[in-house]
Design a protein that fits this description.
The structure holds 2 protein chains of 2 kinds. Chain A is mainly α. Chain A contains 13 helices and no strands. Helices cover 77% and strands 0% of the residues of chain A. In chain A, α1 crosses α12, α9 crosses α13 and α11 packs antiparallel against α12. The relative contact order of chain A is 0.14. Chain B contains 9 helices and 10 strands. In chain B, α5 links the parallel β6 and β7. Chain B starts with a helix and ends in a 9-residue tail after the last helix. The chains are: A mainly alpha, B alpha/beta. Chains A and B meet through α1 and α11 of A and α1, α3 and β7 of B.
Amino acid sequence: MTRPARRRQRVPLPLLLPAGLGLLFLVLPLAGLLVRTPWTTLPRRLAQPGVLTALRLSLETATAATLLCVALGVPLAWLLARVEFPGRRLVRALVTVPLVLPPVVGGVALLLVFGRRGLLGSWLDATFGVTLPFTTAGVVLAEAFVAMPFLVIAVEGALRGADARYEEAAATLGAGRWTTFTRVTLPLVAPGVAAGAVLCWARALGEFGATITFAGNYPGRTQTMPLAVYLALETDVQAAIVLSLVLLTVSVAILAGLRDRWVGVT
Amino acid sequence: MTVRWIRAVLAGAAALSLSLTACGGAGDGSSADTGGTVTVFAAASLTETFTQLGRDFESAHPGTRVVLNFAGSSALATQITQGAPADVFAAASPATMKTVTDAGDAAGAPAVLVRNQLVVAVPEGNPDRVGGLADLARPGVKVALCAEQVPCGAAARSALDAAGVRLTPATLEQDVKGALAKVKLGEVDAALVYRTDVRAADGLAAVEFPESARTVNDYPIVVLKHAGNPDGARAFVDHVRSDAGLAVLTAAGFQAPPSR
């Protein structure tokens, strides 16, 4: 760690060239967004009520989805990291499926289970008169479905990396598993949970496919920012660019604000 | 299966994202292999008929391949004005076609291909006994409409206005097939879609309503200026506008244009 000024080495070109291209590939589209932004009409476009409605809905649903993911995902991660049970590998694989599944497929699957004619949805409708599609709760559900694996994986990784001897010490001192979890384990992996929650929130904020499939699109109720961007693109490219810029700004601001946490994790 | 519309969708999306990042004007497309290929961007409501017409055209012109890209007309219009490599554009409304002609992307004036009319799509047997637009505003009846940005949504809006019906839809879908799917899945009780879409779907019934006569949609078609295969494009347009082509379209429930 404390190695003094390393001798400068030439970076091999076969590594430098693709690395530079990769960087360009990631940064250029964002630069393109900035170049094409209609800066002169920006304030007027931002002040349109539709923009703020969609932004507020996005922030609210992404936050609610993250809370849901933390409440369910942290215990799930703990189970995967700390308890030996048959089929654990299978369970872990199942948890990560939404990660690789196209979100639209997730939306269709959600409809088949929670839709009005769905396996659980028809029961919910008949018993409580509750239908989830086309509601804000449906948006939260769609976002949580897609985002939860990010949290589970991050927290499970943190749990595996944490020193189990603290927990063993707590156990020898007479603490039960619940007390050990709340007093020792959770504080130990708090940075991991925070990092997972940020990833989860960012994924929820950007959710499109599952949301439009399961929750539909209605301003103020289910039209989040990504949906607004997509529909704006159909008629008004400038408006779509402005909306995209807002999403980009929010994402970058969150990442910058939590940078210390990120560094703390590694 | 030679009608590879999935590839066209990918090409369209790629072209769109590329052209959005490039700073230049409408690129006239890298001269890719368009030798025997006609790329057709068509409104979602033309999915069944144009798939059929594409196959017919391919058998009438051996060696020529028709690539079809179906989506909401407005999305297609945006893709075209942003430089997507298309030869023919068939839109579901003159308004969306106008964005393409205004941008100078059309070769010549568009011709009206067919006309279409809105109906209320309900599950077979019409369980909610929907008899007209006014019934859609009844409490407990969930309705899917197209977003106003796409032609079927604009037509739905003017039909509802003409009938003096105010309703809060459950969802505003990005194209007509999306609205139709929500009825098919049973997630909504009714949707305002085109007559042709209901006819092409299983398990659905159409409820006609008088106000739809006031919102008849013209479907314009045009050869695009930057067409990589202008001859093929013209031949395809001639084919769909021929008597045989119109027969396919009217059999699906489209109305022939007034001039014919």
